[in-house]
Amino acid sequence: MSSFFYSPRGRGAGGVPFRKRKSRFTFDEVQLLLNEVRNNRHIVIGKFNRGVSADVKKRTWAEITARINEISECPREIIEIIKKWSDLKCDTKRKVAAMRAGLGGASSALRISRDLSPVENMVHEILQLPRGTTGPVATRGAGPAWGRAGGGERGRRR
């Protein structure tokens, strides 16, 4: 009979250490991330920004990470914050593209914004802003959703 035992050194001969998964991003963390990305969008959005060096971009992401870690339950790394923004952006773009395809070319900005979740709506607005626009994110219909204590991202699994 085989037995299972836990080894803090990990399993297998390679000795890969066991890592506990970090908790999901809270609504407050996501909201802060989106506000910071909006305020620094001229630096962090886009791969090849004119006049923005890679060092400035790295420092900006480090500052955003530090602000998120001030309110976070568990410390986040820079790469996690960048990946979270990338995932939010990708998911929103995919959903908007599917909506536009489903509408048969008669895309209505009002319908799209109505059918998106508050987080997706904020991401969509950030991506639609003209260059150089900054300031806090103000979304239609997102008021009570952000005030929920202990709320998740509408049941989305990551």
From TrEMBL:
Biased composition (Low complexity): 138-147
Residue ranges occupied by any Myb/SANT-like DNA-binding domain in the UniProt entry: 21-97
GO cellular component terms, A-Z: nucleus
Residue segments, region Disordered: 131-158
Pfam families: Myb_DNA-bind_5 (PF13873)
PANTHER family associated with the record: AGAP001331-PA-RELATED, MYB-RELATED TRANSCRIPTION FACTOR, PARTNER OF PROFILIN
Protein name: Myb/SANT-like DNA-binding domain-containing protein
Organism field: Anguilla anguilla
